[in-house]
Design brief:
The chain is about 35% helix and about 15% strand. Strands 1, 2, 5, 6 and 7 form a five-stranded antiparallel beta sheet that branches. A two-stranded antiparallel sheet has the order 3-4. Strand 3 and strand 4 form a beta hairpin. Helix 2 runs antiparallel to helix 4. The longest helix has 17 residues.
């Protein structure tokens, strides 16, 4: 079995790893309404969720803060991480070796099939309530978090969080 190489899995980002700001129009201004990200950002198989083309990117910094907060919640993180490992292995995406490292599966598939397999894992975790549990972990830590209409984890911009308003004029 080969060692897991995250650069081989960059194709997973095809619509999977999301982070975004939602704005609300008020007059000629667009006001930041929520910052949101998909569940798979918590257990990425590549560096895509952390990629940025700007130094000091507030979205990337906030995503790192929120991910760290969720991962520190032991009641959520350990069961979630173990369940993700089980599903990744069951779907033939990757598995943990005896040293705890992710490895590629014996049976190789096409990138398109790997994307389908990963989506199946994340849909299953969402159906099992993982988004709601991650939201609960953020709420316990004092964030105004909620599950948005597309099943992503969302946070209202509070706590001194700075995302600029935009102008439509």
């Amino acid at each position: 079995m080969n060692s897991f190489n995250p650069t081989e899995f960059c194709f997973y980002s095809a619509g999977l790893y999301r982070r975004y700001l939602v704005y609300r129009k008020q007059g000629v201004s667009l006001l930041p309404e929520a910052f949101a990200f998909s569940l798979d950002v918590l257990r990425p198989l590549s560096t895509i969720p952390w990629y940025t083309i700007h130094e000091n990117d507030p979205e990337a910094a906030f995503l790192a803060e929120l991910t760290g907060t969720i991962r520190r919640d032991e009641t959520f993180w350990r069961p979630f991480s173990k369940r993700a490992d089980v599903l990744f292995e069951a779907h033939g995406v990757c598995r943990r070796d005896e040293n705890g490292f992710l490895t590629t599966p014996e049976k190789q598939t096409t990138p398109a099939m790997q994307i389908k397999l990963c989506r199946a894992v994340w849909r299953q975790l969402i159906r099992e309530g993982s988004v709601d549990k991650a939201v609960d972990a953020l709420c316990k830590a004092g964030y105004n978090a909620f599950r948005n209409t597309v099943d992503d984890i969302a946070i209202r911009p509070e706590h001194g969080l700075y995302f600029p308003s935009l102008s439509t004029a």
